[in-house]
Amino acid sequence: MEARILKPSRKYLTKSYLIIAILALGILLCGLLIGALITTDEDRGVEAIWWSLGVTLGLNLLWGVPAVLLMAPYFRSLRYEIHEEQVVMHVGVITRSVKYVPFRTVTNMKINRGPLDRLFGIGTLQIQTAGISGSEQAEQGLVGLEDPQAVYDLAVRALRRFRGAMSPTAADVDEEDLLIAILEEVRGIRQSLEQ
Question: Which pLDDT tens digit goes with each residue over 18-50?
Fold first, then answer.
């Protein structure tokens, strides 16, 4: 199988800019609210609103400008590759990284679509590996996919081909024997608890 190369949709970039704008507006409104509360103090005048507005605008400039400037290069850096034996993710602006997720470690894959994702018609394919399978968190996410179901199906087919090509090992146990062994263990535990 030849590697399938995928890039996130431009809708993901638009969604990211919208999130930055919503956060900036929220900070500004909080600053105005704090300023309005301070003006209720008789010693402080209406100037408190102007001070709080200046501080919140400064905060928004401090984080918002770099966020807006770095978002497009970050978006351009995102690239996903689905190979025969692994998924490879490229990401990063200042520090570029390549993440390899071998299919032998994949324990779960799911599609996630939040409210803004549904609004923009995109989604994320989350891949969970054996390294953090006890956690709710995904090991890696392929964000901004226009058709995450198609990417999921592609990854599942590659996963099945990979696992189907794996030869059985000595550790493979007959399913019925395994269930009998588990049942015997549970009975032994129950007996020890009853005593």
Answer: 999 999 999 999 888 888 887 776 666 677 778
- Residue-wise pLDDT for 160-184, tens only, equals 877 765 544 444 556 777 788 888 8
Give residue 169's identity as a one-letter amino acid code. T
> Phi first, then psi: what are they for 42, rounded to 5°?
-65, -30
Instruction: State how far Cα 123 lies from the chain centre.
Output: 10
Per-residue pLDDT tens over the stretch 66-96: 999 999 999 999 999 999 889 999 999 999 9
Q: Which residue has the tokens 């599609």?
A: 111
Residue holding tokens 């990979």?
162
Measure the CA–CA gap between 149 and 115, rounded to whole angstroms. Answer: 17
Domain extents in the chain: 9-77, 79-165
Q: Specify the long-range contacts of residues 83-90, CB closer than 8 Å, at least 24 apart.
A: 83/1, 83/3, 83/158, 84/1, 84/3, 84/158, 84/161, 84/162, 85/162, 87/127, 87/140, 87/142, 87/155, 88/3, 89/140, 89/142
What's at 5, amino acid-wise? I
On the CB side of 98, CA atoms within 13 Å amount to: 6
Q: Does domain 79-165 have CATH number 2.160.10.10?
A: no
Q: Where are the beta strands (DSSP E) in 25-181?
A: 79-82, 86-91, 97-102, 106-112, 123-129, 140-145
The phi, psi pair for 83, rounded to 5°, reads -100, 180
What percent of the chain shows pLDDT beyond 70?
Answer: 87
